[in-house]
Amino acid sequence: MPEQLFQFLVTGITVGSLYALVGLGFALIYNASDVVNFAQGEFVMLGAMAAIALQNAGFPLFLAAIVATLLTVGVGLLLERFAIEPAVGASVVSTIIITIGAAIFLRGVALLLWGKDFYALPPFSGDTPIQLGGATVLPQSLWVLGVTVVLVLLVRAFFNRTLPGKALLACSYNRVAAQAVGINVKVMLRLAYGLSAGLGALAGILIAPITFSSYEAGVMLGLKGFSAAIVGGIGNPMGAVAGGLLLGVLEALGAGFISSGYKDAIAFLFVLMVLFFEPTGLFGHKSAERV
Amino acid sequence: MRRLLKVFGVVSLLLAGIGLAHAADPIKIGSFLTVTGPASFLGDPELKTLQMYIEDLNAKGGVNGRKIELIHYDTGGNTKDAVNFVKRLIKSDNVDVLIGGTTTGDTMAVIPNVEKEGIPFISLAGAVEIIEPVKKWVFKVPHTDRMAAAKILGDIRKRGLSKVALITGDGGFDKSGRTQVLELAPNYGITLVADESYGNKDTDMTTQLTKIRSSGAEAIINFGLGQAPAIVTKNVKQLGITLPLYQSHGVASQTFIDLAGAAAEGVRLPAAALVVAEQLPNTDPQKPVLLAYKNKYEAKYGPVSTFGGHAYDGLMITVAAIQRAGGTDKAKVRDEIEKTSGFIGTAGVFNMSPEDHMGLNLDAFKLVEIHNGTWKIIE
C-alpha cells in the first residue's frame, strides 16, 4: 500500500506540474489585463507541434525547441496586435470571447498544417525509468518538474524585482493610473502575451515526449491549466502552481483509491468546492471595491 | 402546320431523350459518410475509395453495360443529418443501393428507414448490433469488436493465462470493446481481476496501471483509439510491468508504433490483413486483393487505411450482386448480397447467409506482434 501511495503521489506531482506550467501562462495575462486568455492551451499545442515539425525537418532537438518557442512568441504577439489591441476598451467579457475565437482559429490552422495525426517528440534524456523508492519516474518528468521550478522562480523574480514586471502588475491594478505614471500600457500588454505564449510553448515542448501532441491537444490542457489557475487564485502565479500540483495529486489519488472512472469528476468537484467556499481561490488576494 | 411541326419536334426530342436515358440509365449508389468531423479519419478514406473504384469501373464500361453514379452526402458525424440524407437518397435521388454509415451511430439511426423502404444497405460501421439480430435489408462488411475481443482472449488462453486486467478509455469504441471482453471472458475461462478506465485525453495512466500491477493479473488488455493506448504502453514500460500487453485493432497503424516507440516491442493486437499485406504467405488468397487495393490507393492518396478497405469490400460485393441479379431490382439485389460466398475482400473472405449478414469469421483478423518497430504475424 505505501508503495502504491508513493507511485500515486509521484504521478500526481508529474501531472500536476504540467497543469501548473499551463496555469502560469493564464496567470500572466490575467495579471496584465484582467482577461482569461482561452488561447493559452493553443500556445501549448503550437509550441509542441512546431518543435516536432522542426525536429522532423532535421533541426537538433534543442534548436528546434528554441525556434518553436520563438515562433509561438511571435504568434502570441500577432494575436495581441491584431485581435486584442483593436478591441482595446472593450469589456473583459468581449476580450475573453475574442480569445476563444483565436483559440478556434489557431486549432484550425494547426489542423490544416499538420492534419489530425498525433506526433511525438523524442525524450530529452532517454526513456529509461528512474527508480525512486518503490515508484518509478521517467527522466522526462524530471525535466518537466525541474523546468517548472526554474520558470516559476523566474516569473516570481520578474514580477517582484524587475521594473517591467512591476509595471505589468500596475497595469492590472489600475490601467488609467498606470498610464498616468508613464507606463506604456500597450507595450505591457504585448509583453504579457509574448511571455505567456513563450511559457505555453515551453510547457508544450516539455510534455510532448510524454503526452504526444495533436492539433486539439491544447483543449484539455487549457481547461486543466485554467482550473489550476482559479483554484490557486487567478492572477497569483504561485497560486497557479500550487493549484496545478494540488489538482494533479488529487486526480491521481482519486483514480488510485476511489475509481479511475471518477478521476476528473473528483478533481472538478474540488474546484467547485474551492470556488464555493473561497471564491477568490486558495491563494487569491481579496479584492475590495473602493467607492 | 408549323405549330404541329413544333409539337412533333418537341415530342420526338422528348422521346429521344427518354430513349437515351434508358439506354445509359446509370446504377445509382447512394452513400452517406462521415468525411468531416471527429470520425473523418474513417469516412475520408472510405469516400476516396468509393470514388476511385467507381471511376475505374465506369472507365471499363460500367456494370451490365450501365454506368455507376455515386450520390454522396457528408453527415459530419451527425446522426440526425444521416437520417435526413438517407431519406433524401431514397425518396428524391431514387438510389438503387446504399453503402455508408461510417459510424455505428449513423448506421443504427438510419436502419428503421432502410427497413421501411426496403433498400439494400451495406454498412461500414463496426458494432455487432448492426447485424444482430439480423435485419432483412442491412448488411455490414467491417470486423466487429467482438471478433477482436475473441481473438485476444483466444491468444491469452493459448498462452495458458487466466487472470486478465482490462484498461479502457471513455470513448464509444473503448466502451463497446470493454463490454465485449467482459461478456466473452467467461467463455474462455478467463477472469478479470481489474477493470480500470481513463479519459481519452489523459496524459498519464500510471495510477491505473499501478493498481493493475498489484491485482495479480497475468496479462493486460487495452481497448482504445488515438494517443491514449500509446501512453498506456509507455506507462507499462515505465512501471517495469512485464506482463503481456494486448492492444485492440483500433491502434493497428504505424502511428501507434511511432508514438509508443521502444515500449511497443512485444505488444500484441488483432489487425486486419491489410496492415500486414506484404508479410502474408504467397499462398494466401487474400494477398493479391490486398496488394492491389493498397498499391492503387497509395499511388493516388498516400498511406492506406483499413477503413477505406471496408468501402472497397462494400462496393465490390454490391457490384457482384447487381451483376448476378442482372439489374437493380432491390429485392433481387438484396437476395444476391445475402448469397455472397467466397468473396475475397480486404477484410477477409465473406460468406454471407440469411443468418449472418457480415459473413466474416475469426480468421479475418490476424494476430500480430510488434517486433523491431514493425508488425509480425503470430498466426
Descriptors:
heterodimer; A: 291 residues; mainly alpha; ABC transporter involved in vitamin B12 uptake, BtuC; two-stranded antiparallel ribbon; 11 helices; 74% helix; globular; B: 379 residues; alpha/beta; Rossmann fold; five-stranded parallel beta sheet
In which range does the helix fraction of chain A lie?
over 70%
Shape of chain A: globular
Number of helices of chain B: 12
**Average residue pLDDT of chain B:** 89
Using only C-alpha atoms, the radius of gyration of chain B works out to: 23 Å
Question: Strand sequence of the main sheet of chain B, in spatial order?
Answer: 2-1-3-4-5
Task: Please give the alpha-carbon distance between the first and last residues of chain B.
Answer: 82 Å
CATH topology-level name of chain A? ABC transporter involved in vitamin B12 uptake, BtuC
Proportion of residues in extended strands of chain B:
15-25%
How many extended strands of chain B? 14
- Overall spatial form of chain B: elongated
- CATH C-level class of chain A is Mainly Alpha
Q: What is the domain total for the residues of chain B? A: 2
The chain pair with the largest interface is: A-B, 37 and 32 residues
**Sheet bearing the most strands of chain B, described?**
5 strands, parallel
Oligomeric state of the chains present here: heterodimer
Which segments of chain A are poorly predicted (pLDDT under 50) over 5 or more consecutive residues?
none
Kindly state the number of beta strands of chain A.
2
